Amino acid sequence: MSHFRGLRTYKIKMPEVIVGAGAAKELGEVAKAFGRRALIVAGRGSLESGRIKAIEDELTRTGVDFIVYSDFDPEPTLGQAEKLAEYLGRVLSREGVEFVVGFGGGSSLDMAKIASLASANPRPVEQYMGIDRVPRKGLPLILIPTTAGSGSEVSKSIVLTRDGIKDSIVSEKVMADLAIVDPVLTITMSPHLTSITGIDALSHAIEAYMSINANAFTDPLALKAISMISANLRRAYSNGGDLDARKSMSEAALLAGLAFSNASNCAGHAAAYAFAAKYGVAHGVACGIALPYVMKFNALAIPERLADVAIAMGVEGEGLSTRELAQLAIAEVIDLLTDLDLPTSLQEIGVPEEDVARLAENMLKMTRLLEVNPRRVGLEEARKIFEVMWHGDIEAKI
Ligand SMILES: [Fe+2]
Prior knowledge:
The protein is α/β, with parallel strands linked by helices. It is built from 15 helices and nine strands. Strand 7 and strand 8 (165-170) form a beta hairpin. The structure holds fe (ii) ion. Fe (ii) ion binds next to helix 6 and helix 10.
């Protein structure tokens, strides 16, 4: 495959999508076409808060029976995925499960993908880590996000923690058949959860736009997501009940999800995956810390792309050079992180400085993401990125 963006062959794949305030109320009717008995995969938080009732009632109303699985933590481990696969093996024929419904944040939707995968492929799940290693598509899958960020509802990836670092299963075989995106479900998110999931979505959009796999389909999705997030994330953060802002954020996360699922994330997620699990940092927080430094690192290779990001973020571009605009895109991201009370350095989250060299080595293991980064990341470059990221010195040369 060519390393030049313009010469690469690409493929676009996405699930059917229903979007809108109150869209979750359509679950009952559409679910009937999928079967009479469902496995709902949802996080413990959705069960404890009673939020899951909304979809349980919908299924009951249309005569669809279900069982619920919630035995996993946010940002699940490979071990928890193996446990779910084992559970699925036990209940699949005994309970007559015909389809899977995932309900919750990205972790719950990813675990629902595991359930579907395990229904048609032998254990262990571990053998499917990597790209295109899943032989068969499993039970039909409906995904209903309750956050606006992960894009998992439309993506072909499942992120799992293994040996302290994040790794992925990437395969069209785990993609949902239907995504139901209802912004009303996101209204109860706390300001902090709103900010970190929103920044995850921004990272997807900007990284997909920087990726060498970016193309004529994913570019407009990424740029639209960037402008919607820039205009609405502060609003959703400061007033969770602002349904207009919530709707825009849900749509933006969806667009960003389609952009990264088809064009891939790049060095930002590679850096975030290298340290998030070890220090117990939420995925969105880690992506937020990494994003501006990776933009700065990539600015040398793709100033015109970052200038586009600045314009999408609302920067007045008249009279400014491409390089000046690229710098302003980075400043805009820092500004947004600051407004959302999120950290902008590794130092702030308590990472010891002496760990930086090892974290850089971890980053290099994320070959899938680094191969599509527009500027080559070797050990020296990864070290430099992590050093500057530790100090939080966005003015430093990377
Ligand atoms: Fe992400």
